[in-house]
Amino acid sequence: MLLHTCTFNDKPIAQVQINVSFSFGCHDQTLRMRTQMLFDFTKSTPSQLENFWNTRDICVRENPGKWVKQFFCEGKNPFTSYMDWKPCQWLSWDVSDEGPLQITLNRNLGKREWPNKGWIRNCRRLPK
Fold this sequence. Notes:
Elements: E1 2-8, E2 15-24, E3 31-40, H1 46-54, H2 64-74, E4 89-94, E5 101-108, H3 117-122
Antiparallel strand pairs: 1-2, 2-3, 3-5, 4-5
């Protein structure tokens, strides 16, 4: 398994730790990518948090992919700007006042015939 970890600090309301791991499925021979994002709001004041959550027009529970995209776009980060969210499988999210918001997604990048449809569908789409 390969693992990459980075932190997004460009949005004052929260720090986001991003853990991306790649694994190879032994049974189905597919390359899988797992992205876990931990949004840490603990350094924000209660009034900042209230304002942040009250101005969201997207509910994180109803559409986590769109919520994540909006969060990073507001922070002027293209991390999710051109990503195709349709094939993503959202595993979990946890919203509590005490801890971080955790959003995890899985993507199947296809079998060994790269690039294939699964691979192309999950690649970043950059503007021409």
